[in-house]
Structure formats: C-alpha cells, structure tokens
Amino acid sequence: MAPTTRPKDAADTTDAAVPAGSIKSAERVLQILDLVARHTDGIDASGIRASLKLPRSSLHGLLRVLSDRGYLFVDPDSRVYRVGLHAWEVGQAYSHNQNISVLIGPEMRALRDELNETVQLAVLDGLDNVYLAKEESDHPLRLVSGVGLRLPAHTTALGKVLLAGLPAGEVRRRLAGVTLQRFTKSTIGDKAELLRRLAAVRASGFAEDDGEYTVGLYCVAVPVRSESGAVVAAVSCSTPSARAGATGDRAQRYLPALRACAGRLAPLIAPLS
C-alpha cells in the first residue's frame, strides 16, 4: 500500500525569504522575532502569517515554542504578540557582554550638553539603522527613535552615513528588489537618487535629513570610524527645522562637535563591532 501523504500548505512550496542551505525552522524563528520587534504595539498570528507567508501549522507551533520560552509575550485578551522578557535578556548580552551605555553614555551626554539638542548613535543592519544610544535635549522635542529601535536607513541622516560607508556595489546589492518606502514628501523614493546622495555623503563626510522621516525635523550625522577607516557607527544631532535655521551651511553649526565626539567614540565602539 502506498504511504499516505499530507497535502502541502501552499506557503510550504515557496520560501523565498529563506536562503539556500539554511535551516528553515531557524530562519522562520528569526523572521518572526524580527517582525514582532518592529511592531511595538503588537501583532497577531494572522498578521504574522500574512507578512511572512508561513504555513499556518508551522507558525502556530513556532509561536507556541517562542512564547513558552519567553522570547514572545502573547496578550491573553487581544492575542497579539510582543517581544518577551527573555529576548530582552538575550539582547543585553550584545557586544561581548559589555554595557554599551556605560561605555559611550558620558560622551553622548557631553555632546548633548554642548549642542543642547537630542543626539543619537546607530549602527547599520541590512537597510535599517538600529539605535544604540540616545540622549534627549531639554527642548520639547520627542523623536520616533529609541534605543533598540530601527528606521529605514534611506530616510535618516544616520542611515545615509552608514549606507555611504559601504562600497557602492554592496549598496546596490542590498537595494536589489527593494522598494524605497516614502514617509513624507521629502523622503528619497528613487534608488538612483539615493545612490547620488550617498556619493555626496562620501565626498563631504556627513549627511543631512530635513523632514525625510518626520516632517519639521532636521538631522545631521557623521561617521564613527575604526582605525582602518571603516564606518562602524554614526552619531547625529536632531533639532526642529525652524531652529536649525536656513538651508545651506547650517550643518556647520553642528559638525565640529559631532566630529570631535565621533573621534572620541571610535575607540569605544570599534572593538564592539
């Protein structure tokens, strides 16, 4: 008698997001964690399945394991998933168990005090900039960013500095098949334009963002480099566009302090990268 076979879920046949040679279940776990981490208000199982195109049976099993192990928290009433406590604990072991905030906090606070503006530090992950540190100014300005969060790199000054630190060919590879999302009328939505802007960033050594992710917000960023010259992070200053002043050379108000801080941060950041 021929063995009975279970019909495949349609999503089982096309796992385009899983690289060849990888372990499918491990890739799916990481995809789920990445997706849930981006939804700070939570996302339910249907939303996860729709976003990742995972088989229903596999997804429910993975969500159960992640929840049981504390990597995800599921709200008993709304049934939405959020990042769990154990995932946070694992994240605290980042960078060889060194506490980044202890290492760089004094320099970031000194920069904030010197400029009296909000300052941030980020690294690149794929096409996103991930925030490692943020020091708020006394001004009533609250940014979307926060430690551990990520934003599309093409929309921020920090992100453009980090992308510009890559070889142009690597940037093109990462952009292949990607649609640049627009958040405001100033957001770069064209790949050719982004590549031109990145070339200008490489030439000038800094990047600007004027309302490209948040309307009315101006930001300028510079690279933090290792001894070899590789860009390992970026540091920025953010202020309301009106307070930044007229376009043109307004970045010069912030660049000396940013570059000095980047130089002091380099020996602290480079060993962690």
From TrEMBL:
Q: InterPro entries, alphabetically?
A: GAF-like_dom_sf, HTH_MetabolicPath_Reg, Tscrpt_reg_IclR_C, Tscrpt_reg_IclR_N, WH-like_DNA-bd_sf, WH_DNA-bd_sf
SUPFAM superfamilies noted in UniProt: GAF domain-like, Winged helix' DNA-binding domain
Q: What Gene Ontology terms for biological process does this UniProt record contain?
A: negative regulation of DNA-templated transcription
UniProt cross-references to PROSITE patterns, sorted A to Z:
HTH_ICLR, ICLR_ED
Q: Answer yes or no on keyword Transcription.
A: yes
The record places domain IclR-ED at 86-271
Q: Does the keyword Magnesium apply?
A: no
Q: Which SMART domains match?
A: HTH_ICLR
Which superkingdom, per the lineage? Bacteria
What does the record give under GO molecular function?
DNA binding; DNA-binding transcription factor activity
- Pfam families listed in its UniProt record: HTH_IclR, IclR_C
- The segment(s) forming the HTH iclR-type domain are 23-85
Q: Which UniProt keywords apply?
A: DNA-binding, Transcription, Transcription regulation
Among PANTHER family, the record links this protein to: HELIX-TURN-HELIX TRANSCRIPTIONAL REGULATOR, ICLR FAMILY, HTH-TYPE TRANSCRIPTIONAL REPRESSOR ALLR
**Designated name of the protein:** IclR family transcriptional regulator
